[in-house]
Design goal:
The protein is of the alpha+beta class. It is built from 24 helices and 18 strands. Helix 2 packs across helix 4, helix 15 crosses helix 16 and helix 16 runs antiparallel to helix 17. The N and C termini lie far apart (73 Å).
C-alpha cells in the first residue's frame, strides 16, 4: 500500500511527459506545414459544398452568404490580431464559403422544369446535341418551347429510331410524352436527375413519332451561329478521321480528337472498362495535358533549332501562350463537354504559372486549378469525373515532388539502358499511384475494380503518350493542308495495339471484380485521408492512413438491402438463399435491375440474372410470391386485381398500379401512387421487422427533385 503513491506519481509524470512530447510534435508538424496551408483550400471548399448537397432541405441563400461573409471577416480580424486560433477561423471561412458558393450556384441555375407526366405534347425546338442511344435509337438535347408558352427550357429527347435527316442546329417538331427528371434507381445511388439538372436539362421527352424538320421560327443568335460553325467543323473533321482510319480504330480516334464516341463497338467499350482503360475514351485531363504540353514542347524544340529564335528572350513564356491557345482550340473542337472544360481550366492554370515564372507541375498549381473549378461550378465536387481526376492528379504530383526531393538526379547520369528502365518503372509507378488514388471512387460510383489495370496502363500509356496523341495532334495541324493521312495511319496502328492489349487483359480471370455499394461517409473518410497524405510534408502525414483504413472498414461491413422495389413498381428484387438478388420480372424495369446488380457487386450477365429459372419468385395470375430465407417473410409483387390474394399470403405487398383492396395493418402495402412520390425503395430486414428507405428520404426537398416542386 505504501508503494501506491510513488507508482501513481510516476505514472502521472510519464503521462505529462508524453503529453508534452506530443504537443511539441504537433507544433513542429504544424510549423512544417504552415506554408502548405493553401493546399487545403479546395478540400475545405469541397467540405462546405458536400455539406450543402448532404442537406435534406434547401437552405436559404441570404443566411448562407451572410455566414460566409461573417466567417471571412472574423478570419481577417484574427489574422491581423495574430490570434493563436487564426487557423480555425480560416478553416471555418473556407467551409462556409464553399457552402455559400453551392447555394448561390443552385439559385442562379434554378428555372422552371417538368414536374409531372405530360402526355402527347406538341414539341417544337432546336437540336443542340445528338448522340447514339444505349440500346439503339438516339438521344438529343433540345432547346424547346415550354408547353405553357412562357419561355424555353432544355429537354433530353429520346427516339427509338435513328433520325438520319436531322442535324445539330436544326429546328424540329414532334409529339412526345414529357416526364420529370429521374431519381436514383436505389436509395443513396447516383442521382441522374441532379446531374442533368446542373447541366441545364429540365425534363425528359420520349417521342411518339419521327422528328419532322421545320423552318426556323427565328434566326439563330450570335452564340448559336458560332456553335453551329464549330459543330460543322467538328463534323467535317470527324468525317475525315473516319475516312482515313480503319473501321475498328476510327471511332476511337474520333473520340480522342473530337469527342465523338457514338461509333465505338460495344465489345471494345466493355474490354476498355474491364482493363481500366475506359478513361482514355473521354477527353479529360490526360488528353488535354498531352495535347497542350505536346504543342508546348514542340514549339520550344523547333525554336531551338532556328538560330534566330534559339536565344530569344521569354521563349518559354511565348511557347506557353501558344500552347494555351492550342488547348483552347482543342476544347472547342472536342465539343467542350463539362469534364473537358474542367481539364482545360487545370491545364490553363499550369500554362499561366509558366507565364508568370512559377512551377507548372506542383501541388499549388493543382490546388489553384481545383479551386477555380469549384468556384465556377461547385457541383463538380460531387461529380465522379472531377473526384477521380482531381485525386489522381493530386497523388501523382505529390509522388513526383517526393521523388524529385529524394532522387532528383537518379537517371540523368546513367546509361541509356537504365534511363529506359527508369522510364518503364516511372510509367508503372504512375499507373499504380493513379490506380490506388482512384480506386475508392471507382468502387463507389461504378462498383467495379480492375485488378490488372496497372498492367494494361503500363503497356498502353507509352503508346498513348508517344504515338497516339502526338500523331493525332499532328494530323489536326496538317488537316488544312490535306496531309493528315500519314499521322492518322500511325494513330490507327497505335489504337489497334491499344485495343489488342485491352481485350487481352480483359480476358484474364478476375480481370474485373464487382464491389457492393457502401455509404458515402466511407468515401468521404478515404478522400480526406488521401488529401492529407498528399498535401502534408510533415511526419504527421501518415495519420491520413487512419481515415483511409476506417473508410475501408466501414465500406466492408456496410449492410446490403434485402428487398429492392423500382420506382415504377414494374420490378422487385429479393435476396435469395445464395445471397444474390432474384428478380420478379424479366421484362420490366430492366435498367433498374441492371443498376441493382451493379450496386450489389454482382457481375452476372443481366439476361442470365433475369432468367425465370434463376428466380426465387413463383409467378402466375398477376401475382409473384417469394420467401426470404427458410423462415423469413413472404413478399409479393401483385397486379391491382390480385391485391386481395397477395394480402392473405405476404407480409409485404407491392402493387403495380392503384391497389383495388387495402391490406390489414399487419401487412406493409406499397402501390404505384406511393412509389411515384417516394421513388425507389430499399428494405433491410431485422428478423421480421422491415426498415424501409426511399429515394426521396435521401434526396430530400431540393430544386432538382420534381416531387419537391
Amino acid at each position: 500500500m505504501g508503494q501506491l503513491p510513488k507508482w501513481h506519481a510516476a505514472c502521472r509524470s510519464a503521462f505529462w511527459s508524453h503529453m508534452a512530447s506530443l504537443t511539441r510534435w504537433l507544433r513542429d508538424c504544424s510549423a512544417a506545414d504552415r506554408e502548405n496551408r493553401s493546399l487545403a483550400l479546395p478540400v475545405l471548399l469541397g467540405v462546405g459544398i458536400g455539406g450543402y448537397f448532404y442537406l435534406a432541405t434547401e437552405p436559404p441563400l441570404i443566411p448562407a452568404a451572410g455566414c460566409a461573409a461573417l466567417a471571412i471577416v472574423l478570419w481577417r480580424v484574427a489574422r491581423a490580431a495574430r490570434w493563436q486560433a487564426e487557423v480555425l477561423f480560416w478553416v471555418t471561412a473556407c467551409v462556409a464559403s464553399g457552402f455559400a458558393l453551392a447555394s448561390m450556384r443552385t439559385t442562379v441555375a434554378d428555372s422552371p422544369q417538368v414536374t409531372r407526366l405530360q402526355a402527347n405534347v406538341d414539341l417544337v425546338g432546336r437540336v443542340i446535341t445528338m448522340e447514339a442511344g444505349r440500346r439503339g435509337g438516339q438521344r438529343l438535347l433540345l432547346e424547346a418551347a415550354s408547353p405553357d408558352g412562357r419561355g424555353t427550357f432544355r429537354l433530353r429527347l429520346s427516339t427509338p429510331r435513328l433520325q438520319h435527316a436531322i442535324r445539330v442546329g436544326d429546328w424540329v417538331r414532334t409529339r412526345a410524352d414529357l416526364k420529370p427528371l429521374p431519381g436514383p434507381v436505389i436509395p443513396g445511388g447516383f442521382d441522374f436527375g441532379r446531374k442533368l439538372w446542373f447541366e441545364g436539362v429540365r425534363g425528359l421527352a420520349f417521342t411518339l413519332q419521327d422528328l419532322e424538320r421545320i423552318e426556323p421560327p427565328r434566326p439563330p443568335s450570335r452564340v448559336e451561329h458560332i456553335a453551329d460553325v464549330l459543330r460543322m467543323a467538328r463534323d467535317r473533321i470527324t468525317g475525315r478521321i473516319l475516312a482515313a482510319t480503319s473501321e475498328r480504330a476510327g471511332p476511337i480516334a474520333a473520340a480522342f480528337l473530337t469527342g465523338e464516341r457514338s461509333g465505338i463497338a460495344e465489345e471494345d467499350n466493355e474490354a476498355m472498362q474491364a482493363s481500366s482503360l475506359s478513361h482514355l475514351l473521354s477527353i479529360s485531363g490526360l488528353h488535354m495535358m498531352l495535347a497542350g504540353f505536346g504543342v508546348f514542347a514542340a514549339i520550344r524544340y523547333a525554336a531551338c533549332l532556328w538560330p534566330v529564335t534559339a536565344h530569344a528572350p521569354d521563349l518559354k513564356k511565348h511557347a506557353a501562350a501558344a500552347a494555351l491557345l492550342a488547348s483552347f482550340a482543342y476544347l472547342l473542337l472536342s465539343g467542350a463537354s463539362i469534364p473537358t472544360q474542367r481539364a482545360f481550366i487545370t491545364v490553363a492554370v499550369a500554362f499561366l504559372a509558366v507565364m508568370v515564372d512559377r512551377n507548372a507541375i506542383s501541388l499549388r498549381t493543382v490546388a489553384l486549378g481545383a479551386t477555380a473549378i469549384l468556384v465556377l461550378a461547385p457541383e463538380a465536387w460531387v461529380d465522379p469525373s472531377f473526384q477521380m481526376s482531381f485525386c489522381a492528379v493530386m497523388m501523382l504530383v505529390a509522388a513526383y515532388e517526393w521523388w524529385s526531393r529524394m532522387r532528383l538526379n537518379y537517371w540523368r547520369e546513367d546509361t541509356w539502358l537504365r534511363r529506359a528502365g527508369a522510364a518503364v518503372l516511372g510509367t508503372a509507378a504512375t499507373s499504380v499511384v493513379a490506380g490506388l488514388a482512384t480506386a475508392p471512387f471507382a468502387a463507389f460510383h461504378f462498383n467495379r475494380l480492375s485488378l490488372f489495370g496497372v498492367v494494361a496502363n503500363v503497356l498502353v500509356m507509352p503508346l498513348v503518350s508517344l504515338v497516339i496523341m502526338p500523331s493525332g495532334v499532328l494530323a489536326l495541324l496538317l488537316m488544312p493542308l490535306g496531309l493528315e493521312g500519314l499521322p492518322l495511319w500511325a494513330m490507327d496502328a497505335g489504337l489497334i495495339a491499344m485495343l489488342d492489349v485491352a481485350h487481352w487483359v480483359a480476358s484474364w480471370p478476375l480481370a474485373s471484380i464487382g464491389v457492393p455499394s457502401f455509404p458515402i461517409e466511407a468515401l468521404l473518410a478515404m478522400s480526406l485521408g488521401l488529401c492529407w497524405l498528399a498535401g502534408s510534408r510533415a511526419s504527421w502525414r501518415w495519420l491520413g492512413l487512419v481515415p483511409v483504413l476506417a473508410g475501408l472498414a466501414a465500406g466492408a461491413i456496410s449492410p446490403r438491402p434485402d428487398i429492392l422495389v423500382a420506382a415504377s413498381a414494374g420490378n422487385m428484387a429479393v435476396r435469395d438463399a445464395s445471397g444474390s438478388l432474384s428478380f420478379a420480372s424479366a421484362r420490366k424495369a430492366r435498367f433498374d435491375a441492371e443498376m441493382w446488380l451493379r450496386a450489389d457487386g454482382d457481375t452476372r450477365d443481366l439476361s442470365s440474372a433475369l432468367a425465370s429459372r434463376n428466380s426465387a419468385f413463383a409467378c402466375g395470375n398477376g401475382l409473384c410470391l417469394a420467401r426470404l430465407g427458410d423462415a423469413g417473410p413472404w413478399v409479393a409483387l401483385a397486379a391491382p386485381d390480385a391485391t386481395r390474394v397477395a394480402c392473405r399470403k405476404a407480409s409485404l405487398v407491392v402493387v403495380t398500379g392503384e391497389a383495388a383492396d387495402r391490406c390489414n395493418s399487419n401487412v406493409t402495402q406499397i402501390d404505384q401512387t406511393t412509389l411515384s412520390r417516394a421513388g425507389a425503395i430499399a428494405i433491410h430486414l431485422n428478423g421480421n421487422a422491415m426498415k424501409i428507405t426511399s429515394a426521396s428520404d435521401v434526396r430530400g426537398k431540393r430544386p432538382w427533385v420534381p416531387e419537391a416542386r
